[in-house]
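1st attempt posting a full record on here, be nice pls
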Amino acid sequence: MRGLVFLVCGVGLVGAVAACGAKEKPKDATDTPPAYTDETPKWEGATAPDPNAPSKTSGGPTVNEAPAKRSDQYDKEATEVVLKRAARQVKENCGQAKDEDGKAVGPWGKTTVQVALGRNGHSKGTIVPAPFQGKPTGNCVEKAFTNLTFPPWNGADAQVDWEVELIEPGKEAPKK
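the predicted structure (as tokens):
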């Protein structure tokens, strides 16, 4: 029995070795290897590149490159987002600011506040004009623009004028 196992295994091994070592059919003289091309393979649906399109070495702008940001002045886009958020808080809440008697006394309406932007990325103060200054609504505006944070920069501090609206309670503008 042992001999039969060796015989079967031996025949299987010889067959496997013969199959692995089998040679390919000889090639004709007309069979030539494919020529090397510098062209990248095309996928289905691919189009040929436009020969008139600017190349990467032509000095034209590339699609994914953002313009360099200046570091000597504040980032206007990022700061605008923060200021809009504060102005929205003023519009939604400060018109309802109450005095010591618990009464909303105003004044209400639109005004422009001056916000000092520190180059360290924090607001440094807010100037609220008359007739809002010193009133509950004006104090609320000052608090809304206190402790704002935005990207810092290397230049000098800046001052921004920003319009806010204080809405009288019960006279809210219709939602759009």
